[in-house]
Automatic annotation (TrEMBL):
Membrane-traversing stretches: none
Domain of life the protein comes from: Bacteria
InterPro entries noted in UniProt: Glyco_trans_2-like (IPR001173), Nucleotide-diphossugar_trans (IPR029044), TPR-like_helical_dom_sf (IPR011990)
Residues annotated as domain Glycosyltransferase 2-like: 5-123
Annotated signal peptide: none
Protein name: Beta 1,4 glucosyltransferase
Amino acid sequence: MISISLCMIVKNEEEVLAGCLDSVKGIADEFVIVDTGSADATKEIAARYTDIIYDFEWTDHFADARNFAFSKASKDYILWMDADDVLTDEDRKKLADLKISLSPDIDAVSMYYHVGFDERGEVNFKYRRNRLVKREKGFRWIGAVHEYLEVYGNILETDIAVTHRKHHKTAAPPSDRNLKIYEKMVEGNQTLTPRDLFYFANELKDHKQYNRAITYYHHFLATKQCWIEDEIRTCQYLSDCYRALGHEEAALHSLLKSFLFDQPRPEFCCRLGDYFKEKQKYREGAFWYELAFSAKSSDSGFTQVEYSTWYPHLQLCVCYWQLGDKKTAKQHNDLAASFHPTHPSVLFNKNIFAEQSE
């Protein structure tokens, strides 16, 4: 059986840290906690679980902090999590079983990251990350912001998931920390990698600096050194920026540009359906919503589950109602209900159909 070091970097995480550590207690053989400047009870809480606690002077560079934490691990494999991540009971059992059965020739283990949830608590946004890595391989984190763990070799993909529960923390205004780090890099004439360009553009978009975001998204695509999933997301985000600026045609072209990188994805089919539905072109809208069901979702990239389940059915209900085909409209509302029976629009439509049948 392998041994596991849990390595974390933390700052002001008193509200969530215990929940994270409790969820891996008994699985991780060692907790390595690196604090980057907490002003609350984070370190006191960490001390209930481990005496391996280090202070790390913040350098505006997340990879530096994570690499420092990794350097302090002593077990066979390193598991990394953030303080607002947890393992559910089901995933905890799966990881415990994997710990017993994992072959020593595995260099890294990929797990799902569940980051988005609907009002029922069902996962609606997930992607993969390399979570468990062999310590002796010396894998390194790269990047000041939105850092990534560079791995290679024999990688095992599992259905284990780490669940992100950020909304359990007290609500706070959007942080401009990452944006400031990137602005400092630009002001210092530091070279931005393609990944930096992409995430800098994301920060600009999130802070409603749409014109600058558009510029950096185009710089990113022009490098032609991009992960396909980020190229596809760039098309989506460019469309969002253009739409926010009122440039509807450019927004449409950005959605269509995603087809240059891969076959249509469900989320893009639905967005195109939305475009035509909003223009009351219901037949065209229905075409794209129907296509969403046969479009390919990405297992290795970012998956938004609703775009291949209840959402296109709900929109098809609207389209066929407007086209005068109420029978097909009801069929699609019933199908939407099979995925999301409590959605307010599904329930509203159900009442309408009930009234029509009386």
